[in-house]
């Protein structure tokens, strides 16, 4: 029997633990956890993500501030806002929603966030800690951290002897995901657009993770029978059956056919997506504990 992994339910469990941790920090140290989310421009999908992040932060009992900047914001104005948030003691986590409008450079902005407030895990200090196997000292990118929680739920914490294939090598997802799997003792392959015979590479995977941005690219005959399939892709495609101009979300995996071969598989929506938001909350409360000189809980 194939297991459909319920990311919503796992995310709800993480959120309960975050709420409890935030409550304890407030009661015992008088510290209210604070998250600042910065969004520039008016991309509707980005606005939808950002408002669900702000809403969830409030639900966790955090101070939640959202900075919505106009499309024509300059590099200097955005940099000045990050400096202000860096210096603000009530803010423990800063997230700058990506992508930024084309006239802005995201890299200098991300690298100017204090590493201890970089709840996206994109600062070189945090990426470097993960790459060198220091999983407790830094902050780990939310989506791979969330995907890893789902893998652990199926395969346990030690992946010794298992082959893992990650399709995609972005700094936001593919690279940190490969690092986490390697850290858990899997034998890891990073596949990408230059990989030869991707289907054959994937068929070798006990754990197959797809983060490409191509709707339903992974087919049933790419999946090893019994494999754990984690679909990170978020693709909005036209859905004529719902009426003119309507769309629906699909992942990078052809869910129906792959579910017949896989041992466990994440759906889209309802898989990795909700975990991303939950792990953002977890990273923020971790940052607040560290700032207060306390050992943070593990999620
Ligand atoms: N659920 C969630 O919370 C999140 C979902 N996402 C989703 O995950 C997907 C990937 O995101 P992200 O990592 O930021 O994307 P990027 O566009 O940064 O990276 C895509 C990767 O896919 C590789 N790729 C592209 N085409 C192919 C192909 N034909 N065969 C094999 N590999 C290919 C690229 O290879 P190369 O490097 O060679 O160009 C690249 O490494 C997107 O759908 C995004 O929306 C992202 C973040 C969070
Ligand atoms: N600095 C930065 N950090 C990010 O982590 C980041 C980002 N920028 N830019 C965009 C991507 C994308 N991303 C998602 C978050 C939640 C869902 C999510 O909740 N998805 C729901 C469905 C949502 C819907 O229905 O539209 C689900 O899959 O069930 C998806 C995608 C975070 N990203």
UniProtKB/TrEMBL annotation:
SUPFAM superfamilies: Aminoacid dehydrogenase-like, N-terminal domain, NAD(P)-binding Rossmann-fold domains
GO BP term, pick one: purine nucleotide biosynthetic process
Pathway this chain belongs to: One-carbon metabolism; tetrahydrofolate interconversion
Key word Amino-acid biosynthesis present: yes
Annotated ranges, domain Tetrahydrofolate dehydrogenase/cyclohydrolase NAD(P)-binding: 141-290
Catalytic reaction(s) noted: (6R)-5,10-methenyltetrahydrofolate + H2O = (6R)-10-formyltetrahydrofolate + H(+); (6R)-5,10-methylene-5,6,7,8-tetrahydrofolate + NADP(+) = (6R)-5,10-methenyltetrahydrofolate + NADPH
Domain of life of the native organism: Bacteria
A GO CC term assigned to this protein in UniProt: cytosol
EC number, as in UniProt: 1.5.1.5, 3.5.4.9
Binding positions (NADP(+)): 168-170, 234
Residue ranges of every copy of the Tetrahydrofolate dehydrogenase/cyclohydrolase catalytic domain listed in the record: 5-120
Quaternary context: Homodimer.
Function of the protein: Catalyzes the oxidation of 5,10-methylenetetrahydrofolate to 5,10-methenyltetrahydrofolate and then the hydrolysis of 5,10-methenyltetrahydrofolate to 10-formyltetrahydrofolate.
Similarity-based family: Belongs to the tetrahydrofolate dehydrogenase/cyclohydrolase family.
Protein name: Bifunctional protein FolD
